[in-house]
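@channel anyone free to eyeball this complex?
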Amino acid sequence: MKNTIKITLGFIAIALTFSSCNNSKSSESKGGLSSSAAEQVYVKPGDHDEFYAFLSGGFSGQLSVYGLPSGRLFKVIPVFSQDPEKAYGYNEETKPMLMTSYGEIPWGDAHHPDISQTNGVLDGRWIFINENNTPRIARIDLSNFETSEIIEIPNSAGNHSSSYVTDNTEYVIAGTRFGIPIPQRDISIKDYKGNFKGALSFIKVDKDSGQMDLSFQILMPGFDYDKAHPGRGKSDGWFFYTTYNTEEANSLLEVNASQNDKDFIAAVNWKKAEEYIKVGKFKTMPTKYAHNIYNDETHSATTTWGTSVKVLDPAECPGLVYFLPTPKSPHGCDVDPTGEYIVGSGKLAASLTVHSFTKMLDAIKNKKFAGEAYGIPILNFEDVLAGTVEQPGLGPLHTEFDGKGNAYTTFFISSEVVKWKLGTWEILDRQPAFYSPGHLMIPGGNSQKPFGKYLVSMNKITKDRYLPTGPEVCQSAQLFDISGDKMKLLLDFPTIGEPHYAAGIPADLVAPKSRKIFKLEENKHPYATTNDADTKVVRDGKNVHVYITTIRSHFNPDNIEGIKVGDKVFFHVTNMEQDYDVPHGMSMIGANTSEVLVMPGQTETFVWEPKQVGVWPFYCTDFCSALHQEMQGYVRVSPENSNIPLSWSLGEE
Amino acid sequence: MNTKTMSKLVSLVLIGLLIGCGGKDEKKKASFSYEKKATTTTQQAPPETKVPASKKVNLTDKGVGPITSVELNAEIDQAMVAHGQEIYNKMCTACHRPTKKFIGPAQAGVMERRTPEWVMNMILNPEGMLQNDPLAKELLAEFNGAPMANQNLTQEEARAVLEYFRTLK
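replying in thread with the prediction:
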């Protein structure tokens, strides 16, 4: 056998040598295969990618996991939307994850993933992502690659300038895009100006468990807080937010929010905010928000309700917030790895504006204010300006950094990625993107330590890049090699939903910690069956609880009788396997829900309400062994008035 | 079809006719028979009986895996047995019964058929055993291709289970 392989490989090698000789005449390749884009993205079968990339799923509500440089899709992690494949939001255990103050919501709009950091460097423990429509922040555990926690943000609407973490993940923040009356009340929309507000929320993250806690909110004027970035290194302790609609228009914003020559970047001193909270300079506002936490031992989520929030009024808290004038409805707000430069991408501006943190501190110290807005000091544009990148392109949106003194900005209208130099502001390179990029991502590119090898551009328009699939075509990402002086386009790959932002991390910071199984002995699910002798069926009035187990390849029990029409049957499925990559699924004919997909050592529950007399089969949905097709069973359903006793069995036992 | 089966069939049909109208407990007119496996009650084993892997005795094969030598004390350690039995009940009974064939073979008497190393390797390294150990391969075929599952026991746990097996005769 081995010899055969060697001989075959030999033939392939010879064939390749010949064919590459032929190719070299017609192709432009000069240095052989080594420099080809194909070889740079080729990860040979069985080999692993160098980076994980987590791309937001946008209006799919989910988070997708890709490998770089291959662009291979590994997993779609359900976060804000139900996922019948994994039973997320369908099984009894995860339904509470989608609970909000508005009730259970099956869909969300996922935006900006950000990986937890320690000392400004990616630590690969958790990834946070915001939901725009029903304001929420989720935390995904990067050992399970599952959503562990979702916290709802009260006093917010359009949770867009979110969910970024500070240098030591002290906070993950959430900002409001749509001004609203706070507290909500019945007033005329025309009374927007001066009456509507935008809340900036600071959510404390427990340094050990990662658990989130809504710490406080700053009630800002009713501008639209679009994007945000924490200070890094020297500017740690500050948070920066771009604003638009400083006009406070309430209609036809396309025109009316584009009137001011300059909007603002709001600089928020969150360490100062902590001091104000400590001395009690806050008001406690009654409110209601859901806080949903999934427990790895009970394999279940629970919802608790927040009932109040501490709010700070910046007009009453000197030194808390300053406004940095920034041209023309800035969108992206990006701080370089040193923390000195704050890039504001004026969507409608002819140049890119870069502010200096040092100059900002000087201007504040010298009290050089140009005015104030709702009691918040406005600094002079010229006093804080570090420089401008002139004529970089049209429609700048977002900037990331490579850690070598370079910045990369996407331009939506001129459809390109532009590389420029921090400090000299000169343009070094520009490459077209196909088409109209929004966000871009360099692994670690918003932290103090970027891994500046690849850049992913996430494009809003795909048009002719792939085979057409009717009116709706896939969204697209493009991979660039940024290790050289010039960027080099390597690969297109389709994405899930519309990726708004992404986060990337070297695989070796995450892969070794990836969980393989849940230990049966740690299973504390109230309906778990951790010993095969304990399988049973228990009636409690109309509710029937089936304690059922799976192992390759049978259910225990697999014959159940004594169920009646009108019963509500809870199948509590425990997977007894303790081996990697052996999930079992279960589905029941006529169950008005999804399958469950149960990982080794886990318990999941689905509900079946039989409506017809008969004998109804169930089976395993996930191919588990050579005898997977045999993994099936029956439930006998008798009439409501029947007196057939409950019984259950497996084989002859 | 021999006469025994035939008479069984007839009586089943009769029973069916008798209680068929009762509705609830239908006893269906028996099945068909087509080269069904010989069962232990109908002694139809082929003349050149091959010893099944579960009955074979091999006290030299140590199997494939992390265990190369196990010292067994003459006296059985009862505390270890209790621990092993607890682990066996939790982790193994989904497929095994101590004294009868279930999904997999019974463990009773296994210490008279196998080396302790083989037993522990089968618990700790079933994938490797099923690929490389001739006896394990035969067992897989005998048990319908149902593979021994790796339940991720520690060596200490597997050793305790082995001690428990010593008490199963």
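from a first look: The interface with chain B takes residues 517, 520-521, 530-533, 549, 551-554, 556, 576-579, 582, 625-627, 638, 642, 644, 651 of chain A (CB under 8 Å).
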